Amino acid sequence: MGKLRQGTVGRRFTILYAVVFLVSGMGLLALTYLLSGSEEARVAPGQPPPGPSGLAAAEQHIRDLEAQLSDVHAQQSRQLLVGSLIALVVMAVVSLLLGRALAGRVLRPLRLITAATRRISAENLHQRLAVAGPADEVKELADTIDSLLERLEASFAAQRRFVGNASHELRTPLATMRASLDVAVAKPEPAAPTVALADRLRTELDRVDHLLDGFLVLARAQNGALADRAVVSLGELTGEALTARAADIAAKSLTVDDEVRPKSWTRGSPALLSRLVGNVIDNAIVHNVEGGWIRIAVDHVDAEVRLVVETGGRVLDQDRVDLLGQPFERLGADRTGSEESSGLGLSIVAAIAAAHGGSLALRARPEGGLRVTAALPSAADAEVGQFERVGQFRGMTP
């Protein structure tokens, strides 16, 4: 009965089939009982005909036989009624089972449509239900959903193309503005206000350039254009990212506790995965307090490779934390270092993880701080073995 509770329509179909069967069975039972009762009423002892007194004993015997026959008919009617009731109860149970089977068969196409629709997300809008069969209401519903998915795919693709194209186009005027500033400052004995203004504009241009770079990476990850897929060690990428950010870690006097397994292999774009690891670690560094700590772990769990980065700090609201995977979302202006962030870091991580078939989980630690978990599918053993053999061969090549 567990499946019946899952679908309201299926439960209603089952109950409807059972009720219709029971009503029909009860009507048939009542008709059978009425017919048997009317037949019994016709078997009534008649009046003894007048005749010699010698016939009295025979007539009395006949009346006794008729009375016995009437009792037998009544007993048979009761037995028929009891047997019919038992048969009705048995068939009621059978009708529930048959009703459940019929409801499941009737609703099976709808369940398939529901399951296929749930598998389709913003990352795989190109998939279609493509339901085959007669042109009935179910196929019409599936075709309508396919048409909706087609329009959504076109809309998402247009949005991503716009972000990518706009980011590329804005690079040119930014480069021109930067060159103009350099020319103005390079003049002999430039005025002090000009130099100060140029330094301030360079800072803002760097921030805008960083933002555009984030847009480009986000658009590439969301488009799923991963032509450079290869076997990558998430542990080695984490080690490289920590080494490259050693100065930033030292500047904030942060304590780093890392448990990184170098042989944590996944398959994907090395450039995007490097950006994923870098953004997660940058988030832990920028949004941290002076003298704080960072705990980093890279491990192979089941069929996944997981990067887990934890930081301390104040207790955060989980509802607000859940929004950090969206572009331009921050925990608030009072969060440490938020003025240095573009608000795209974790949204880029989420997009890159999704493009690789993985996920990003953000959890507020009960003791305070944030726990970021990026899970990616692990590479197949055959791919890892082939990659290691190629690496050994190249290492032996003079």
List the helices and strands and how they pair.
Elements lengths: L1 H5 L1 H35 L13 H64 L17 H50 L5 H32 L6 E4 H11 L1 H6 L3 E6 L4 E4 L1 H17 L6 E9 L2 E8 L6 H4 L23 H11 L3 E6 L5 E8 L3 H16 L2
Parallel strand pairs: 2-4
Antiparallel strand pairs: 1-3, 4-5, 5-7, 6-7
Helix pairs in contact: 2-3, 4-5, 5-10, 6-8, 8-10
Q: What is this structure, in a nutshell?
A:
With 398 residues, the chain is α+β, with helices and mostly antiparallel strands.
What this model shows, in words?
By secondary structure, this protein is α+β, with helices and mostly antiparallel strands. It folds into 3 domains: 88 residues; 85 residues, Helix Hairpins (Orthogonal Bundle), CATH 1.10.287; 155 residues, Heat Shock Protein 90. Helix content is 63%, strand content 11%. The protein is built from 11 helices and 7 strands. The longest helix is centred in the first third of the chain and has 64 residues. The N terminus and C terminus are likely disordered.
